[in-house]
Amino acid sequence: MDEEKKIEEIATYISTCPVCKKTFVVKDYKYNVPYYGDVIITVAECENCGYKYRDVLVASGNEPRKVVYRVEEPGDDNALLIKNSTCRIEIPELGVSIEPGAYSQGYITTVEGLILDVIEVADHLCRQENSPREKCNEVKDLLEKARKNETPYTVIIYDNIGVCDIISSRKKPVYEKLNT
Predict the structure, then answer these.
(1) pLDDT tens per residue, the chain (180 residues)?
(2) What is the Cα 49 distance to its own chain's centre?
């Protein structure tokens, strides 16, 4: 199947930028993710201030669930991660908790991409004037070990609408019912 047939624009509408309050165009696309199914990708960019919005929703929802995926050896981090704007992600061994907020966005990445995003945020926070240097160095060292597959870790997604997932050809995540 060629790329043009996999993605289809399904809606275009006007909304208000949450940053500068000017109007911008929002577009929804339907995209078929292999081995997963159809997702709705929403994209917008404010021409006035540059604010970008992205979200990913599965075309059909499930029950609230917890998705648990263990990264233990090289290649496990190549798994596809589908995250919506309302889920919470934890990586307990690395002390990572990503909470949804007013401007949370959904996206599709890999587990490695998630770790790289966390490293980028940690770098930013550690450059702040009042950041605890010793703790920052410990956290950054641990994240770098995870990125290099030198330490195992667990990615846990708490998904109240049942649309997030981790997809791997190597192994399956564990799905648990999430009591809301």
Answers:
(1) 444 557 889 999 999 998 999 999 999 999 887 767 788 889 999 999 999 988 887 776 678 999 999 999 999 999 999 998 889 999 999 999 999 987 788 888 999 999 999 999 999 888 888 889 888 889 999 999 999 999 999 999 999 888 889 999 999 999 999 886
(2) 24
Structural domain of residue 91, as residue ranges? 65-177
Q: Residue 100 and residue 138: Cα distance in Å, rounded? A: 25
What global pTM score does this model have?
A: 0.74
Same domain, 108 and 172: yes
* Euclidean distance between CA atoms 166 and 174, whole angstroms: 10
Q: Are residues 101 and 161 in the same domain?
A: yes
Q: Contact, 70 vs 92, CB < 8 A?
A: no
According to DSSP, the β-strands at 37-45 and 153-159 are unpaired
Q: Does one domain contain both 104 and 137?
A: yes
DSSP letter assigned to residue 163 = -
Domain end point (choices 34, 58, 82):
58
**Residue (of 37, 36, 62, 66) closest to 174 by Cα position:** 66
Is 84 found in the same domain as 168? yes
